[in-house]
Amino acid sequence: MCIRDGGAEAIGRVVAGGFGIVLRSRLQISVPGEQQPVPVQKALNEVAVTKEHGGSLVQLRLYCDGVFVTEVRADGLVIATPTGSTAYSLAAGGSVVHPSVPAILVTPICPQSLSFRPLMLPDTSTLRVEVSEDSRYGAHVSLDGMPSVFLAREEAILIQACNFPVPTVCNNAESEDWFSSVDSNLRFNTMFVDKHRPRL
Questions:
Q1: Helix or strand or coil: residue 180?
Q2: Predicted TM-score of the model (pTM)
């Protein structure tokens, strides 16, 4: 927020103690078993598991709480928080989700089968993403766009909600801030309504 957009007034309210707090969920990843040792890492927006090479799809298996969900041939998978639902996940075709919804989003990136639609799972879930032994190549894992770890065939990562969310300050009310942000940044539904409608 810029000073000219009311930032100075908002900062004044924060200093005076008159503000609300929203807890933004995060994801954390770990590597199971005897794979390469990787410290637990956290992401505010998403964990992306993407193909190793530009021209070939990666074959990934997805499990939720130990239950096999599906095997996908795609450019990858995006596992996102509600905060990250307006970032990479949205660009891949995922849903826009209010930050207070306790969910983990699973969005395929250009899947070979169009029947694999985005999923919204409880934030209590533990997800396992594994590179199939039948995959031609391995997969890169990134957190909020930053490279993390490489997965060879038959290697996996575990993804779950972090116990320590990020507190963020509200400018007004939580939903008012969020809908205003969606409206101004995404131009939500502007092709179907009057562009001169009152802005939030």
A1: helix
A2: 0.84
